[in-house]
Amino acid sequence: MARPFIITITTLLLVMWMASSVKSAPMSSKPKVILVSMDGFRHDYLSKVNNTPNFDMMLREGVTMPWIRNTFTTLTFPCHFTMVTGLYEESHGIVANNMYDSKTDRNRFRMSTTDDDWWTGHETIWTSAQKAGLKAGVYFWVGSASKIQGTRPERWFPYDGRVPFEDRVDTLVKWMSEDDFDLGLIYFNEPDHTGHVSGPEGHATLKEVERMDGILGRLLQKLNDTNLLDTVNIIVTSDHGMAATDSDTKLIDLRDYVNETLVANVIQQGSMASLIPQEGKAQELVDALKDVEHMTVMLKEDISERYHYKDHRRILPVLLIADEGWTISENGTYRRLNIPRFLGDHGYDNILSSMRPIFVARGPAFKQNAVVESIDTVDIYPLICHLLNIDPAPNNGSLERAATLLRVPPKFKENLGRVKKNTSEPSKH
Ligand SMILES: [Zn+2]
């Protein structure tokens, strides 16, 4: 009776070994990276809801931090472009969602603008990957619909917020599995939109957080189905948080203090505002606004260095920053995105807790079940370059800082991922 028993045990061990090696053996040994952005996903949203099994799994099997430090101004376009370039906003030049540039033919930028010359040739992560011979696909990201350094991602789509999130996930996974892409980026316009409508504590917003957990679950499941889950390094993060506001009752109407004799144009308004003064009237404009409650006004040259938001011609002569929860308007109303009344907004000082985004990562390169010190969003670009084993372009990030996330510390080359700011074109005018 003993012999068959031994054979059975041996066979069982062999089967278990085979099963475990199949599970852990990646389809491909190439490193792969997926960067996910869920717009407006505040760092503490998960603590406000109960039903997020997929984020819970990511946290258990991956690495997180209390929040990731994002850049000023905490708006969608600037923050997203920082993530993929590793540059501060004054360096990459996407300094607001609405911009003015005296040097471009059509000098007004809005979120629908894709003219290539607004993107100033700074290298994005998909450009770096493709230069190194890798394949990159981007399912919506700020800048991906424009030619940057003469190229677009190998796969990309013009932005259409109506595309179901499930379709975005399914397409991305196809790129990564069937087409063997090395890098995939994917963007979801929630929970930002619901956060604006309902506020960061609103029931609808918190339900949306749970829905986004389901979308994350679909991504993880599809990667598992294609044997990629344990091969791909996935980073889930966001551009900014969300502060409670009320655009009906906490509104600063600039007409109460200034008029067109001082102000030539208001380019961006809301949580912050960018003003072009009349010729020679900048100081007078600042003086007229300096005692207005619930906001701070400053000349461009007086903007604090900590914002890294000064040295670019698209940063306009006068900057206003509203106190948390307040809204600046040039005409007594604040309407955008077809939202009649804002109960949540962002764009405020990036030092505010409410402006901080989530960060969680999982994959073979990342620590497991670990909480590490916060890094900066400028560090994401050199981090992904390291994960893909490609050389980064000059950037403001730090792989040394991001290394805290990694199981195996990188061997540092001289100056890798650590180039002093202002790699941008000459910016003073
Ligand atoms: Zn938003």
UniProtKB/TrEMBL annotation:
GO molecular function, one term: hydrolase activity
Keyword annotations from UniProtKB, A to Z: Signal
Cleaved signal peptide residues: 1-24
UniProt-listed CDD domains: Enpp
Pfam family, one: Phosphodiest
Alphabetical list of PANTHER family matching this protein: BIS(5'-ADENOSYL)-TRIPHOSPHATASE, ECTONUCLEOTIDE PYROPHOSPHATASE/PHOSPHODIESTERASE
Protein name (database record): Ectonucleotide pyrophosphatase/phosphodiesterase family member 5
Organism this protein belongs to: Plakobranchus ocellatus
